[in-house]
Amino acid sequence: MIKYKIFYRKGVVFLNRAEKREKSKEINVLNEVVSIMNKYFPELISKFNGLTDVRHQSYVIYQMKVIFMVRLLGLMCAIKSMNEMTSEFNKEEAIENIAKICGLELDEIPHCDTINDVFKNVKVEEIEEIRKYMITKLIRGKIIKKFLVRDKYYHIVVDGTGLATSRKKYNSNCLVKNKTDKNGNKYQEYSTYVLEAKLVVGDMVFSIGSEFVENINKKIKGYKKTNIKQLKLIKKENKNLSRPQYKQDCEIKAFRRLAQKIKKEFPRLKILISGDALYASKTVLDICKEYGWKYIIRFKEGAIPTLFSEFTKIVENDNESIIENYEFVTKIDYREYKTNIIKHTEIKKNNKTEFMYMTDLPITNKNIESSIFIGRKRWKIENEGFNIQKNGTFDIGHLYSKNETAIKVHYLMIQIAHILRQLLEKGSKSVKELKLKIKEISQKIKELLTSTHLNQVGTYRSQLRFDG
Length: 468
Hints:
Blueprint: E1 7-9, E2 12-14, H1 17-26, H2 29-40, H3 44-49, H4 64-76, H5 82-88, H6 92-102, H7 112-119, H8 124-140, E3 154-166, E4 175-180, E5 186-201, E6 204-213, H9 228-237, H10 243-265, E7 271-275, H11 282-291, E8 294-298, H12 305-318, E9 326-334, E10 337-348, E11 351-359, H13 368-376, H14 380-391, H15 404-427, H16 429-434, H17 438-451
Parallel strand pairs: 3-7, 7-8
Antiparallel strand pairs: 1-2, 3-5, 4-5, 5-6, 8-11, 9-10, 10-11
Helix pairs in contact: 2-15, 4-6, 4-15, 7-15, 8-15, 10-11
């Protein structure tokens, strides 16, 4: 057994490069992944196998759990395309290891076309139920408890993002935008757009709800199907309707549907909703009131002009904060509501950055700083959420399929994989000690899966520890 010189600084373990190389040989990251699944989500694989299968059973070669575990493991390895996944997993070791993880025998693994054919006919709601199962297990397992806002509220951040884009219309649900290239040539861009709700858990963000925004043009009142001529007519008739307002109208409608889903699936959860300035509206406040949720929403001058003006007038003479660079005014009238406006001016190297929020959380001088910190966690959906999924481990911008149902299934599988990856990266003591980078973790999982024979997959019981 090799002895390591281990240095501690503020509770963090430091190894030199040689020690890191040696210690990394002892750590089986794939085993960590499977043990996390077995311990925290013991029914995950069986739930995949229980998905509705519309295939003719006499022609079925691969069980549903094999189809979905191959896709999940491909995502855990950060493999960016379906063809690459088929190629990388076409090894005896990979086939043997996947068979052991699934608890059966395999001669081959399904080709990417087979996986996509299954994804086209899967019920999206059933995949959402699997995600709900995972979030519920984490809540009941008390992993999330110490990260509650004010020891009470589950912090959910909502934001939208675009997924695949193309100049060709790849299915009937695509959104369409008129664009101009650098040479001045006009063209149409087709895309998929999703409104996402992430549960903030310390440095992690877990997907708790997704609502796809589909073909917004046909939803405008008065048009069953909106072609380009009709769209121009709509813009002509609504000269004062800016582009952000088109987006807001769409996102707010999607938010209502998303909120209904979350309330139905987690009816007793005490929730604190965060969003950008698009969500500073009476509609959102009505939804929060209806469901008994709290809110802390990004606020700025253009969001609700009358409310911004009133805050500015009041705070000049009656700032309730006694802390430098903080301002807040409580119980300002907005429609039938009373809301609190809080503001912090951060000064770094002569640069000023303002952070401003509207909230119905009680605000005092004792909690104003922590309240601003809570509001700023809205950025986690961009950084730890969409950024990682677009530019890091996953590639949500890649068009894995042109079929509208398969696109949704691929997206939801990425959300499931991201939950597992975050638990591994942020909770595994071994991974944290080694300070492995995201790409290094992906590479180690792939190497172990495709080039070693794992005799006792998942028998090691991983203990997750998260920084509070």
